[in-house]
Amino acid sequence: MTRHTNPAGNGHCRTGTQAPFGQHAREERPLPKDLDAEKAVIGSVMIDPSCMGAVVNLLSPDDFFLPAHRQLFEVLIELHFEGSPIGDLTILVAAFEARGCLSDVGGKAFLAELLCETATAKHAMLYAQSVSTNALLRGLVAAGGEITGLGYAGGEAADLPWIKQRAFAVLTKAIESTELARDNDQPLPPGWTPFPLECLPRAMRDYVASAAEAVDCDASMVALPSLSVAASAIGNTRRAALKASWIEPSILWTAVIAPVGTAKSAAIAAAIDPVRQCQAELAQQYELGKPSRRIFASDLTIEALAGIVGECPRGLLVGRDELSAWLQGMQRYHQHGSDSGQWLELHTGTALVVDRRAKDRPPVRVEHPAVSITGAIQPEILRRCLGSEHLVDGLAQRLLWAMPPTRAQRWTEATISSEVRVAWRNTLDGLWKLESCRADKGEFPRTVPLSGAAKRAYVAWHEVQRVRQEGIAGPLLGSLAKMPGACARLAMILHLAAAAGGEVDNASEIGSAAMDSAIRIIEWCCAEQRRVYAMLDATGAERAENELLEIIARKGGRITQRELCHAARKYRGKGAAFEALNQLVGQGEGVWESPRAATGRGRPAQPVFVLIGAPTVT
């Protein structure tokens, strides 16, 4: 999206000498900006570099109003992704001096002031949201000025068709920006950032975006399952080779965490719909006596799964609307023990050996199983299903999670166009047509190495990831420790999907573009893992506070006691709404705003609770 800025950079906008909408239109008015929020965002990433990944997915340097802030943020981004500690003042000063721009950003004193003034990075995303919203508003002002200029350009000799076309284009862009600004008015939950859709191959990106719009859900609820779909389509025909002793299979386990009423079932269904359709076509071929295979399953025990994969070893997708049955099934014991250990081994793609329950039947052995999994689950059910066992045994750490903020469902006329469906299906067909390496002893996956540039990028990121894990313990450490392997798998999946879609000519080695995209997606996944484990570790009081913050966020960051009573039944007791909101004020999460003067009869106006970082209402 292109954002318009004031070329003069003086913070003001003139609309001409003859104002068509009254005298006020001729007045010089300041452009929308929030300089305190800009400083708070920069200070937050300096004292807590771990939030940089989330911030840069929402902001670019051009979103900052002051040139000094733009330049400072741009250099901080460079230093962060180079692995430099951006919270060290000495290193920061040296870096800016080396670039010859220390005085441009305010000098050492200004950098020290930012570090001292920023007490916490807890509200970094809320401040970033304010910076983004003001950038969008400045774009609207610039669009309005351009349309006004087109109006004054009229006359007998004017090219009226061109003027109308141009005005319509500018107005359309302004309306789209307004819609985005409206959607972005809702403060994001702490740590949440939108999924980086631009990192997906074109056909997958278009399908995910269209499906999310049609379902009216967050794009991550379709994106992660679609990545599992692509992984299963590649199956055991390919494996990513980081080095001779480190090979990663095309296996992805993904899960969406969302409460009831958030369209999670529809999102999962949209993601796996191409696989279901292909499976139906294969079933028709089987009925006609033609060769067929199994590529999709939904309800399986480990024994049944072994039988299917043994007969059709190329690759399988297990798609579940609700993952709770799958998780609970691992806790059931039979004469051979529980199934959890064999499921955990499936994630590595190593040989699967399953003893049949019938004693007269031999064990099933599959040399190179490739089983990808996707589905959804409710937060409370996830907490019960995982328990302490699966948080320790590594099951939870093998899943890539998405836990987007909840929002009310809106009606939409949007659908997935046939062109978008066909393009994504063609890409998947290209992946399903990949062949493994055949030898005398059977078929084996072909290895896909990294290009030189891709390996350099991966090694640099791997080192940064290692440093980040220092000081982390418990289940979260296990989850982050599996991210390097997931990154390699994801890079291969993105690369082969791009090649199947005609975006890449050389499919024999993973290129730097695919690796860069994989790293960005994995960075997003790392942030989600932290949010999920914080949710799992939260006490009852902490969960109640998070639920309250989400209610306020859905209201645009502003809510009265009366509105909170209507939004949730548990706050309808006498004084319950005020007590809950006032507790947030005491914790520094928000402030009370005096009510505006009431006009006419009716209930007296109530004070408004305003979440820190919520857009200002004028």
Features:
alpha/beta, single chain, 618 residues, DNAb Helicase, Chain A, 19 strands, Arc Repressor Mutant, subunit A, disordered N terminus, 3-stranded mixed sheet, 5-stranded parallel sheet, Rossmann fold, 51% helix
Please tell me about this protein's structure.
- By secondary structure, the protein is of the alpha/beta class.
- It has 3 domains: 12-184, DNAb Helicase, Chain A (Orthogonal Bundle); 197-537, Rossmann fold (3-Layer(aba) Sandwich), CATH 3.40.50; 540-611, Arc Repressor Mutant, subunit A.
- The protein is 51% helix and 11% strand.
- It contains 23 helices and 19 strands.
- The strands form 7 sheets. It has a 5-stranded parallel β-sheet. The chain has a 3-stranded mixed β-sheet with strand order 4-3-16, with helices on one face.
- β3 and β4 form a beta hairpin.
- α6 (124-152) runs antiparallel to α7, α9 (220-234) runs parallel beside α10 (264-287) and α18 (475-481) packs antiparallel against α20 (512-537).
- The chain is globular and about 85 Å long.
- The two termini are 26 Å apart.
- The model is unreliable at 1-27 and 177-188 (pLDDT under 50).
